[in-house]
Amino acid sequence: MLIKKKGTSEINNINKEANKEIEEMDKELIDNVEDHTEEKEKDALKKEKERAKDRRDIAKMMTDYLIKQSNERIKAIDKEISNAEKQADHLRSLAENGNIEAKESLSEQNRLIAEANIKKEQELKRQQKIKLAESVYSTYNQKVSEGAKNQGEVKAGEHPGIPPTQHTSDPIFPTRSQTGTSKALSK
Length: 187
Hints:
4 helices; 0% strand; 2 domains; rod-shaped
């Protein structure tokens, strides 16, 4: 019986030691899994930051291209205005000398100049919208690259171009509430 007790106590001690070793191995395994998970999350965040930077770069290139095209249109409009003004000056001098047709042509030239100025203003407004859209997009991607996980963490109003009350994802195209379109019609 003494041998049984001694054997049993040895078995119990071996079991206790084995259980301790198993617990230590479990803790080590859990730590390794946590470290691996953290590494994966860091890698995923790093990749998302790189993608966000790429998206910002692409948006910047597109904006630069669109602004360049817009500036070329403005140059053409300015040239058109300049030519129309020269023609208007010539017609004005003819009209002052009593040429009736020149008076009629002068009013037409003034109308063309006014239309060209309107086109130029529209193009300048378009440029502003393009710049604002690029700025908003860049800010959004910057927030994403800084670790914001969803759009809820990137709030309107955090960008100087968007007032806190404006809840549109695209500043160029207004929301239904801005256009007056009924939500009931969309259902």
